[in-house]
């Protein structure tokens, strides 16, 4: 059987994040990707100029169309933008048995808001309890908890544990927004703590890193790998994609990571 992953997220017209990044990551890792679009954004490497939410009945219809026909092995959830869309997605997935990777997308790399202020509480009540793993960066974790952004390892672990108490089976606290020569993520579960550390790569081309990481985790889960194995492989894959990002030379702002660095040969 072909491994299938479903992404439920917003569309990035620039191709570096959102639905486009997810499908690229799925494909690069040997997984068939299906998609449900929750919002259409007009954006590039520099800015987001417009956001149009997709009607909730259309979001629901997309999910039903996929789940009625495709044997989905894992689901990645990204940008949902509004309380109504969050509630719709939660309702449609309530009987779904596939593992769910929840990336609480709130702000684009350009700094533009992608989640309405009132939507965070709905995300907590409706989606965190059904998530297999929650993958917040440090500002997202702080916003979900109503706390200052963590600046130390101890604070990251405390916030990760607090998020775990809200219902997800695991929390991956991402350290990309921290300072220092190394980037450290923590995978926190009720019974285990896994530390993943890699050298921080000096590049401004990091558009779509969060989307790519969460989609890569979903790809691993879709192929039947365990959560820790999926997270470790996704972490390694993303490091390679960031390391090769400058070779793409896309746009004049925050360019995308190189999803197909293991496949394309034009830069050798």
How would you portray this structure in words?
With 268 residues, the protein is of the alpha/beta class. The protein has one domain (4-247): 3-Layer(aba) Sandwich (UDP-N-acetylmuramoyl-L-alanine:D-glutamate ligase), CATH 3.40.1190.20. Helix content is 36%, strand content 21%. A 6-stranded mixed beta sheet has the order 3-2-1-4-5-6. β5, α4 (119-127) and β6 form a beta-alpha-beta unit. It is globular and about 45 Å long. The model has no long low-confidence stretch (mean pLDDT 92).
Considering the chains and any ligands shown, give keywords for the structure.
six-stranded mixed beta sheet; 268 residues; 36% helix; three-stranded antiparallel beta sheet; 21% strand; UDP-N-acetylmuramoyl-L-alanine:D-glutamate ligase; alpha/beta; single chain
Sheet with most strands: 6 strands, mixed
Number of structural units classed as domains: 1
Judging by the overall fold, what is the CATH architecture? 3-Layer(aba) Sandwich
Report the count of strand segments: 9
Oligomer: single chain
Brief account:
This protein is of the alpha/beta class and 268 residues long. Helices cover 36% and strands 21% of the residues. It contains eight helices and nine strands.
Q: How are the SSEs ordered, and which strands pair?
A:
Blueprint: E1 4-12, H1 18-28, E2 32-43, E3 48-53, H2 56-69, E4 74-77, H3 83-93, E5 100-102, H4 119-127, E6 133-134, H5 138-145, H6 153-164, E7 170-173, E8 182-189, E9 193-199, H7 209-222, H8 227-243
Parallel strand pairs: 1-2, 1-4, 4-5, 5-6
Antiparallel strand pairs: 2-3, 7-8, 8-9
């Amino acid at each position: 059987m072909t491994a299938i992953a479903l992404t439920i997220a917003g569309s990035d017209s620039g191709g570096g994040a959102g639905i486009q990044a997810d499908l690229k990551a799925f494909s690069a890792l040997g997984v068939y990707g299906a998609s449900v679009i929750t919002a259409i954004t007009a954006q590039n490497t520099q800015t987001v100029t417009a956001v149009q939410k997709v009607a909730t009945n259309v979001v629901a219809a997309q999910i039903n169309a996929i789940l009625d026909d495709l044997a989905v092995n894992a689901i990645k959830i990204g940008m949902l933008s509004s309380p109504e869309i969050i509630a719709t997605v939660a309702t449609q997935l309530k009987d779904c048995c596939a593992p769910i990777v929840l990336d609480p997308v709130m702000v684009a790399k350009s700094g533009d808001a992608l989640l309405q202020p009132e939507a965070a509480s709905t995300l907590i009540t409706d989606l965190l309890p059904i998530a297999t793993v929650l993958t917040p960066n440090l500002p997202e974790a702080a916003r979900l908890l109503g706390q200052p952004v963590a600046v130390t390892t101890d604070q990251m672990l405390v916030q990760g544990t607090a998020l775990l108490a809200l219902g997800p089976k695991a929390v991956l606290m991402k350290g990309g927004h921290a300072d220092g020569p190394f980037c450290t993520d923590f995978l926190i579960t009720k019974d285990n703590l896994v530390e993943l550390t890699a050298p921080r790569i000096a590049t401004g081309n990091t558009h779509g890193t969060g989307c790519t990481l969460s989609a890569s985790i979903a790809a691993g889960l879709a192929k039947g790998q365990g959560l820790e194995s999926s997270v470790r492989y996704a972490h390694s894959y993303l490091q390679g994609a960031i390391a090769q990002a400058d070779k793409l030379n896309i746009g004049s702002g925050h360019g995308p990571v190189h999803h197909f660095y293991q496949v394309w040969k034009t830069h050798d």
